[in-house]
Structure formats: structure tokens, C-alpha cells
Batch of 2 targets.
Target 1
Amino acid sequence: MKQAIELIINGETYDLIVTPNVTLQEAIREHLGLKGTKAGCEMGTCGACTVLLGDKPILSCITLAVECQGLEITTIEGLSEGPTLSNMQKAFVRAGAVQCGFCTPGVILSSTALLKKNPQPNVNEIKKALEGNLCRCTGYNSIIEAVLDAADPSGHLDHQQDQEIKL
Amino acid sequence: MICWPERISGGSLDSKKMKLSQFDHKTPTSRKEVVDLLTNLGQDSAILAGGTDLIPNMKNGTLMPKTLVSLKHLTAEKEHLTKDGSLKLDALSTLSQITESPLIKEKAPSLAQAAFHVGGQQIRNRATLGGNLCQESRCLYLNQSHDFQFVEACYKRAGDCCYPFPDGGKICRAVFMSDMAPVLITLGAHLVVLGSHGERQVDIADFYTGDGLKPVNLGPTELITSVLIPLESQKMQCRFFKATPRGGLEFAMVSIAVALTLDKNKKKCSKAVIAVGSINTKPLRALEAEKHLTGSLLNRSDIVEISKNAANEIKPLPHHGYSRGYLKQLVEVYIKRSLIDIIKTVDNKNG
Ligand SMILES: Cc1cc2nc3c(=O)[nH]c(=O)nc-3n(C[C@H](O)[C@H](O)[C@H](O)COP(=O)(O)OP(=O)(O)OC[C@H]3O[C@@H](n4cnc5c(N)ncnc54)[C@H](O)[C@@H]3O)c2cc1C
Ligand code: SF4
Ligand code: FES
Ligand code: FES
């Protein structure tokens, strides 16, 4: 049966009428036309569909739209202000951390959430935070450089590889 | 007859293949109401918690419930110590909450470790403890998108064959791959279950059936409400190790949970529990190794032999391309690492 739901996406409230089998990904891409949220595996294994629910990255392809009634969601379109990119987006441009760009919205959202929780992550913490975002182009090194750069543009942090992950 | 699906035989690419079919969605506001709904709706309904297991399984056609009973309007109780000192976790706690909770990290550190190693952070942010313990078992044939699947349904999908074990007998040997279950087994946890008959407590050791067709001992109207970890387990030396090929966003090749009760100074072990996950249709115990450890003084040379013996007694099902022999080796290596890690900690404390 169809249900009326309200989604708060990038600060704007949208009223939608959906059946329960519509995923958040379909609602965002097909009902609202925001195509920055990608459709990759659609089975929860690649991270291309990552959006933020509150502050937390989640996978929109395995989340039902009706489960998000009334909740605040941020997609990649919500990070920039007009033509001005967010710090994380700028760092990705500087580091050349984008090739085909398919994984990029998800990676940038996961990285943005990481820095909000842990403003100065070490390399292993970045890898851990991005374990659910697959990139088939960049080999990840440039992505890690971008996140380190966003965390510390002056480059003063110790970027050693063998730092432990603090639980 | 086995026929190849369209995509492999050169048919059209259909991007709608991953669409969920229609179902009803209920949002009860109390646990009692969940049970009432499940009772009225019967077999065709399923509980929806984080959905990170259920939704992919609905997309690939393994499960096709007509109604989802969503837990989203229930509030999770914060983890706390009960009067008798047990650590009580709400089944609705997300795995992220479990990795971040100072109380859980203090009282049940191996559980926090296991949660930290499930999926990726996007999964852990939604995935719940209850859903993890009741997840579907997995098999290379079962959990594929329908395009890659053999068209003839296997036993698990109500058909009449099994691809990896074609020996008949309607036996499904899909592997149970929860990372949280083996840890809770080593901690002697109890599950609090609410059903139409009222509340019951189940020792998690009795919760897994070993039947691939119905891996958990849970009635159709039942809901896990919380998990209790007894006081004495909170004092054990416990470890969790997970072997994966990529090191992230992955189900385990095997996962190992160990918990030992030690007399600190003498390194004497008075109780040992070793559980292995992702190895068979249910988590397995290394009982001989436990017996060997109990009452003995921990030392490195014994541990080499204990780990070897544990690998001997554990019977793996080859799964996801890993052979029995390889899985046995992993069991040996990871049990050894867990025990050596415990010895190191004790040495540091003593020294
Ligand atoms: C890419 C990916 C990687 C994954 N990696 C891992 C991994 O490494 N380790 C691992 O263990 N799991 C893994 N999972 C599986 C799954 O994400 C987790 O097991 C998760 O904890 C399931 O919780 P959930 O709340 O999302 O469950 P749901 O999907 O909501 O439910 C799962 C099942 O449990 C039932 N259920 C849910 N809550 C209750 C309850 N309170 N009482 C009774 N029944 C209930 C549901 O009806 C359903 O049958 C992975 C999944 C994906 C998609
Ligand atoms: S092991 Fe179970 S799930 Fe796998 S093919 Fe056989 S019957 Fe199906
Ligand atoms: S599209 Fe959602 S995880 Fe791949
Ligand atoms: S840039 Fe192509 S997948 Fe990451």
C-alpha cells in the first residue's frame, strides 16, 4: 500500500508517496532526481549509494524510504554551498583523488562523517572508515592523501602507516 | 533442467533486477505489539531491524516475506549492569553503538571487537545485535543476485537440490556467519526472547540449530529483546580474531572467540571456552582444547599443541571457495594467536 512520507534531504523537506518496497536510493535518484547518490551493486557491498542519516553514513540501497520518514539525510549535493565546494571536496580536487568519479560521492560522505567524529585521523583510521567504499580506479592512495589533507592542510600531522586504530 | 539466466546467455541487461517486490510495512510502537502482529500475520511476516541482512536477501529472492514488522519505533534501552551484575544489551543496539560504548569496551571487550569487524561503518550504523544473531546463513549459491544464480531453486529456496553438496537428503549446509554469535557463546550469554507465550531466556549455546534450513531456535512469533552477559564472564580474558581475505567489509573465512578464566599470578586457567564462527551451519566449540586448557598453567609450548588439536577436532564445511584444509589451518593459527595474545597480556601485568 502506498504511504505518504516526508524526507528532509539537504535541509529541504520533500513529500513523497511511495510503496514500502521503494529504497531510499530509488527515492533519492528516481523520485527526487538527485543523481549524485550512485547505484552500484544495489546489495550493500560497494558504498556508492552512501548518504548521511543525521551524522552517520548508511547505505541507501538497502534502506527502505519508509524507514526514513521524518529523518534528516545529506547527499553529496548537500555538501557544497552553491558553487563553493566543501573542504573535503576541495581536498579531493587538490589530491586528484577522482578518476571515473563513480565512488566519489560515497567516499566523500564517509570521509566527511569521519572528520566530524575524529578530526585528526591516522592512515589506518581512514582506511577503516572507508572500508565500505570500494573504488576501482584510484588505488585508494590518493583518496587517503585527500582525507589527510582535508584534516590537516598544513601537512604537519605524522602520516605514518603503522598507527593503531583506537577503538 | 538447469538453464542459464538471460544475462549470461547474452540477454538484455535489466537494471530493475535489484528491485524489491511488493510487501506491506507495519510500524508497531511496543515489543508486545510486535509479537501480536507476528502472531496475527503468521509465517509470511518478518521482523525488520537494520535491514542490512534482510533487504539484500529479499533483493536476491532468498526471502520473500509479505509483511515486514519494523522495529524502528521501538527505543533501545542503553546498555547497563543489572542488579546481579550482568551486562544487559538491548537487541536493538546498533553495532556502532556496541563498538563505541565505554561500558561494553570495559566489560566485554571481545564483543566490541567483533562488532567493529562486521561489514563497513555504513553497515554497522544500521545493523543491530538482534539482527546479527538471527541473520540468514550463507552459501555461494544462495546469496547471489538472481542473474548469477542457477535457475533451479535449492532446498533453502524451497526447491529440490543443493549445488555445493549434491548428495540429496534435503540437507542445507549453508554456513552461519555471524561474528557476534561466537563471542557471546564464549561469554555464556543468555538471550531474552518475547513471544505470544510470554518471555523466555535461552542460553545462546542452545540457540543455533545446525540446520541450514532453519539456523536459529526462534518461533515465528518471537522477538529477541535483550542479551545478558553474566558477571563472571566479564572477568575472563577474552579475544576475538577474524580472518578475512581483504581486511575490511567482509564476512569471515573463520572467526575465533576465546575466553579464559585465569588465576592472574600463576597463569592458571580454571575455565576455557573457544568458539569458532563462519565454519559450519552453526558456531562450533573446540571442546578438547578447552579441556586441555582447563586446570593447566598457560605456556607457549602447550599452546602450539592445543591449537593443533583444536584444528583437528573442528569440522569445517568448505565455503566460499575455501577448502576444509585451509579453514583448519586458519583455525589453528588464529586460536594460537588468541592464546599467545592472552599470555602476553598476563606477562605484562605480572612483569
Ligand atoms: C556488505 C555486507 C557485509 C556484512 N558483513 C558482515 C560481517 O562481517 N559479519 C556479520 O556477522 N554480518 C555481516 N553482514 C550481515 C548483517 O549486516 C549483520 O549480520 C547485521 O548485524 C544484521 O542486523 P540487522 O539489524 O541489519 O538485521 P536485519 O536485516 O534487520 O534482520 C536480519 C534477520 O534477523 C531477524 N531479526 C532482526 N532483529 C530481530 C530481533 N530483535 N529478534 C528476532 N529476530 C530479529 C530479521 O527478521 C531477519 O530475519 C553483512 C552484510 C552486508 C550487506
Ligand atoms: S547449501 Fe543450502 S543454500 Fe547452499 S545450495 Fe545447498 S541448499 Fe541451497
Ligand atoms: S549501491 Fe548500495 S552499497 Fe552498492
Ligand atoms: S574513481 Fe572510479 S571507482 Fe573510484
Note: The longest helix of chain B spans residues 324-350.
Target 2
Amino acid sequence: MSDRKLRVSKIRNGTVIDHVSGGQALNVLSILGIDGSEELGVSIVMNVPSAQLGKKDVVKVEDRELSQSEVDVLSLIAPEATINIIRDYDVTRKTRVEQPETVTGILSCPNPGCITNGNEPVETSFSIVADGVRCSYCGTIIRDSLADHIDAE
Amino acid sequence: MMRQDHLITATQLSRADIETVLDQAAEIAADPQAWAESHFGSVLALCFFEPSTRTKMSFDTAMKRLGGTTTDMGTVESSSVKKGESLADTVRVIEGYADAIVLRHPSEGSAQMASEFVDVPVINAGDGAGQHPSQTLLDLYTIRENAGLDDLSIGIMGDLKYGRTVHSLADALTNFDIRQHFISPESLRLPRNVRYDLHEAGAQVREHTELDGVLPELDVLYVTRIQRERFPDESEYRKIAGEYQIDADLLSEAKENLTVMHPLPRVDEIAPDVDKTTHAKYFEQAHNGLPVRMALLDSLLGGDDK
Ligand SMILES: [Zn+2]
């Protein structure tokens, strides 16, 4: 992996999320629940040329190794993303995101009448269906612009 | 016995589940006294967060006819819900008093959520514009009694968008060899998630904006009410709702043995002159609620196979 390709300096330990669909880097951080308050070193690159995607984003999170289940929810907005776990400047593990069966607590249901939008102690849950996601409570299907439904708190 | 612990949506029901309940309902209808002591001591909690007369009375009577008793949450106005208690807390408290809970609530998905907080069976008696699966079981019982459940054409007419009885019925009918015709104004057609279910199940479905063309081929016509509040103004409502009303004269175009059903209450979508025709089965349908709900309760409460 060349320096030119990444355009930001290498990290010593942590996670590099590469091949994120162009423009989705901030949503990636939002889904991962990273907003800066954790005091992790975070660097992002947006809309750099990519042979595979046309344009891609790259997200680097220092000193935190993301688990497979944490990154799998990224498949909703960045299905081509690759995950590199870095230890002492070396890539020790490289995986693809895999589509999970359900996504919990990440998206909010667009149906105002859904019980998950009431004042109840319940997390949202969506199952993955043919070309979108479906609320496990009210059945509402979201097909387009999933990123608009990310519940950023 | 059904494989499930709860009855939340009709999509969870297999053909075998449905037939088991309907067969048992038929046995109960033939000899209700034989079941009079079968759930002695069992308590059913009636939790209706929306007004209901017949569904609540039907469950109340069904439990008592099985030898059990019921405990009623009362109206929302008189309960702790008004003080802001969550549904999750309400059902966790009520679970302590009852062997099963019947829930009607204005939010879609409420019964699913409630079932995740309690260990006793939850029966969804209507969750907003979502589902109403116990109504579906009595609808299917009525269809089976009058027309059988295979090789049929069924027309479902009215408010298909918000009609929870329609959503549950359409989902359940996919278990049978049935052609489903949906007749509604464009603005009240089936919601996307139900059309998705039907498509996934490989159902034979057609949508229409008028009853005229399809009426002659129907074996069953299921009519639902179009509500005033779905329209911006009174004249628009009158104009559109008027196109989805039936009377005896219109039914002269139908098959002689057409079965006309309605979940009730009806207002003016079925003219009173239909009541006297052999097509009218909606009061019989309402009466079927009792044996069907007795069979359902017996199955969820763990009845022995008599
Ligand atoms: Zn929902």
C-alpha cells in the first residue's frame, strides 16, 4: 500500500478502513459511534481516485482495533470496504465487511408510528432484505439512502 | 399446537398452524361444553390501549368459556399509562397477574416489542396500521366454511393501506392456492412491506381501482371501511368512499355463491339490503370469533390435544 494512495501518514496501531464509497467517511464514523470525544486519533481522506470505486474514502482510527461485528454494519453504506488491523505499522489482518443478518441500534425507523420511535426502552433493529433493510418491529422497508436514517447520537 | 409462543403477525403462521387452529375451532363449535373446564384457573389480561368493543368482548368470552377468567387494564385514561408509563413497563407488571396477554396498541410493532419483555404469550389484537392476526384466523375459518381454502379468487376492498385486518389476511392467504385481488383508491393501496411479503411468498396478486371488472370472477369479497380521517376534506372522502360501496343490486353481477365478508363495524360500505341476500356472511364471521379465539387461547396456553 503506497503512501501516495493513502495521502495520510501511516498509523502505528489501530484500524484502517479502506475502499469506503466516496463521500461516506463521516457516516462510517457515525455508525461506529466515533465522534472525537473518545480522544482517539482519527484521520479521514475523502473522494480520492479509486480504480475500483471511481472515488473512495479512507478512515483511519488509531489505537483501536475494530471487531468484525462492529465493521459489518458498514456494509449498509460501504459494501466494498476493506478493514486493515494495524500493529506496529504492519497490517496484521485484512478482511472485507460482511453483510450481517440484522443491524441493531444504528438506524432509526422512518415510520413515525413505529414503537421504536415511542418512549420505550428498546433499540431499533433491522433485518437485511433483498435490496434494503426492514424494521423488525413495524416491517417498514428502507431501500434508498440508508445513510439518512443513521441515528447519530 | 402452534410452534410459536406468541401470535404477533400473520406471516409467522404456516398452513399447518392455521389448519390446526381452524380444525380445533370446528371441534369447539360443535361441542363448546366439552371445553368448559379446560383452562380452569387461567387468567387472560386484556390490555386495550385503543377503544375496542367486539375484539375485547370476544377474547373475554373465549377465556371464560374455557373455564378461565380475565383481568382488564381498563381504559388508558384511567390507568398508569396516562402518567407516562412505558408499554414495556406496563406489560412487565401485568405479566405478574396473567397467563397470557392480549394487546391492542396504536403503535406499529408494539406487540412484537411487548413480547420481548415478558415470558407469557402475547396476542397481537391490533398494532396501529400493522397486523391483527387473530381476526385473520376467524376470517380464514369463515372462508373455509363457505368456500373452502384452495383454488379461490378473493377480492379485498377498501382501505388497504391502513387496514391491519387486510395486512394480516393477505399475508396468511399466501399459504393457500388463492388468487388475491386488491381493490382500492390509488392513495389507499397496499403498503410496500405487505406487497413485499406477497411477492416473496410468490402469491398471485392483482391490484385494481374498480370493483366492476373483477367482481364476476370472485368467490369471496372482503370489504373494509374507508375512514373519513384518511382524506383532507369531506367532499373528497364522500366521492372516493362512494366508489367502494356495495349493495344488493351491484351483487347481481356476482357469482351466485359469492361470500361477502367484513371485519365490522360497517358504516355504509355495505348497504343494509345486502344483509338479506345469501351472500352476507359478516355476522356469521363475527360469531366465529368465539370458537376460533378459544382454539387460539387453548393452543397458546398449552392445551392438551383433545
Ligand atoms: Zn419500525
Note: The longest strand of chain B covers residues 43-48.
